[in-house]
Design a protein that fits this description.
about 210 residues; mainly alpha; about 0% strand; rod-shaped
Amino acid sequence: MWEIIQAGGPVMWPIIVCSIGAAAIILERLWTLQEKRVIPRELTDKVWKLVETRTLTDRHLTALEHNSPLGRVLAVGLATREQGREIMKEVIEDTGRHVVHELERFLNTLGTIAAITPLLGLLGTVTGMISAFEAITSQGVGDARVLSGGIGEALITTAAGLIVAIPALIGYRYLRGRVDALVIEMEKEAIKLVQAFDRFDAKTASAAAPGP
């Protein structure tokens, strides 16, 4: 392995750095973007039971905010539930944008790695061919071994760039789709909470209305 890296020339080092970065980002995002960590099962229903039984406290809201990304969205909505439906929706949407930004953390970097590693491989190809032509200029073409170093560098860096770029691009596309799916689910849960408050308010108003 060390011999291959040396044969690839100096361009191999940024390619190796990119490979380590891509692997780290993919593993970290796969762990962070687990559905149970972003959208815990039945969290909205549990929160709503606290609202219905009028046992929801500031301590519950603090715990909910630190529970998960969905919990953070629900917590800010519940904190403004007394200010009206429009304010509640606006705060939920604003917090949702921040949560989405956090879910997409490092994905742009991963996409950049997927884009630049083939270019680094191409750069290695160019530098390898330059080395080969310099060898031809100085020593002629009588000995094939004179060319082997430059051609080997060109081929190794091209292959290394593609080997890093292909998994990085697959990981980027997969994680981007996963974030989109999680965002849709969070929106559904937030809408469910807002609609539940609408029904709850209507029911409360109906119960409080004086009879005929």
